[in-house]
Each structure stands twice: as C-alpha cells, then as structure tokens.
Amino acid sequence: MSDESRPTPAQNPVAAVIPAAGRGVRLGPGAPKALRALNGTPMLIHAVRALAASRHVSLVVVVAPPDGAAEVKSLLDAHALPDRTDFLVVPGGESRQESVRLGLDALPPQYGTVLVHDAARPLVPVDTVDAVIEAVRDGAPAVVPALPLADTVKEVEPATVAGAPEPVVATPERARLRAVQTPQGFDRETLLRAHETVTGDVTDDASMVEQLGLTVVAVPGHEEAFKVTRPLDLVLAEAVLARRRLNDGF
Ligand code: C5P
C-alpha cells in the first residue's frame, strides 16, 4: 500500500482480543489459568494491562470462561486500568479458536487492525505489542512475534502410551525455526476470512492466515512474552515482576 492510501492510525484503531477461557490443566488443579495470581494480581489483569499499555490499542475484548463472564467483568472493575481504553467481556467456547471467533464477533466495525493475545502471556512488553501493530500498519496481513530457538527440535512419531520411546523422524534446521508468541496482529478482514474458511484445529491464529495462502511475517519477539503453562513458569513470571520492580526503583 502506498503511504497516501494507507489509513492513518486515527482512521484505523487497534482492538485486542484476549482469549482467557482455557482451564490450564498443565498448571495443576485450581482456578482457570487466566485467573491465577501473579504477585497477588490475576494473570489476566497483567495481560490486559500489557496490551492496554500501547497507546494504539483503544479496545480490549476479554474472552472469559463460558460460565465466568460476570466474574471476569468484576475483576476488570476491581483493578486500575487506563481510562483511554474500552473493555468488553464475552463468554468463550470449547476451543481456543472458538473463543477467538466469539471475541471477533464482539468487535465494533471501526477496528481495522486486531491483535490476538493469550491471557497466558501476561508479561509481554509494550515494545513488542507496538512492533506487531507497526508491521500490520505497514501492510502485512498477519504478523507474529517470534524468537530463535535455543534447543534443537526433533520431529517424532508420537507414542500412543505416554512416556514410551518415540522414533525420531526428522531434525529441521534450527536456524530456520522460530518459537512464535503473541500478540499476533492482523488486518481484521483477513482474520475474519481465515476464521470463516479454516475449520481444522490450529494452535495459533496466524496459521489460519497461512492456510489462506497469504504471507505471514515474523517480527522479533521478547523473552518476557513467554507463555505461562507449567508450575515453573509461575516462578519465572514472579521473578520477572520482581526484576521490573527493582529496575523501576532506580
Ligand atoms: O491452551 P493454551 O495454553 O494454548 O491456551 C492459550 C490461550 O487460549 C489461553 O489464554 C487460554 O485461556 C485460551 N483459551 C480459550 N478458550 C479455550 C481454550 C484456551 O480462550 N477453549
């Protein structure tokens, strides 16, 4: 798109959809993952604040557990959030994909750029959010923040019994692989079309856009945008928050 025909930021406000309807079974028993506390504040509130920290984001849609929308609304009301941002809560679905679609259905028409961000990535820095937005505004239909891998990755023939040895079938070249994070950013129409067209199971939204045959671009992600999945991730997340408090103190 040429600079003249590209909408200005004011003409193309950004909405963020935060799917937060997962149970988070890998974290152990307890409340839905997004409602677990990090340093006394629910993970979801950290995630909402992380997205609302971008001055480009003017609406955050939280997709709550199907029976938890009222609880999530009260949580948002109980925590300080920026005044310049609007917040909506909608009930989610059975799969992450369905939850995202329900969030998209709630978007008012003026939002041409949409971010989808896991509640389970509560500590994403605002610079990462802004880098994704900028790449969408520069014309990419879909953008993912991504990091190079430290580990070598093997493709295996998955065992049917947990813990049984699994034959390795391939070793992709590590230098060409990236671990993909969120927020992922989209031209709204493209993401809607992807959700209408792709019905198979996916683990992220950008792969649906890939299935439309469109190019998805990766921008640098951030180590603090990791996904809180297992109990040790909670320890790491609290350590990151402690480091931020220390740094803010100087
Ligand atoms: O399960 P996974 O860690 O991939 O979930 C990623 C995000 O999707 C989490 O924020 C989770 O709350 C959300 N999710 C959802 N609805 C589901 C399943 C997961 O909103 N049915």
UniProtKB/TrEMBL annotation:
GO terms for molecular function: 2-C-methyl-D-erythritol 4-phosphate cytidylyltransferase activity. The record marks R26, K33 as: Transition state stabilizer. The keyword NAD does not apply. Keywords: Isoprene biosynthesis, Nucleotidyltransferase, Transferase. It is an enzyme of class 2 (transferase). It catalyses: 2-C-methyl-D-erythritol 4-phosphate + CTP + H(+) = 4-CDP-2-C-methyl-D-erythritol + diphosphate. InterPro entries: IspD, IspD/TarI, IspD/TarI_cytidylyltransf_bact, ISPD_synthase_CS, Nucleotide-diphossugar_trans. Signal peptide: none annotated. The keyword Transferase applies. Coiled coil: none annotated. Pathway: Isoprenoid biosynthesis; isopentenyl diphosphate biosynthesis via DXP pathway; isopentenyl diphosphate from 1-deoxy-D-xylulose 5-phosphate: step 2/6. Its EC number is 2.7.7.60. Catalyzes the formation of 4-diphosphocytidyl-2-C-methyl-D-erythritol from CTP and 2-C-methyl-D-erythritol 4-phosphate (MEP). PANTHER family: 2-C-METHYL-D-ERYTHRITOL 4-PHOSPHATE CYTIDYLYLTRANSFERASE, CHLOROPLASTIC (PTHR32125). This is 2-C-methyl-D-erythritol 4-phosphate cytidylyltransferase. It comes from Streptomyces musisoli. The gene is ispD.
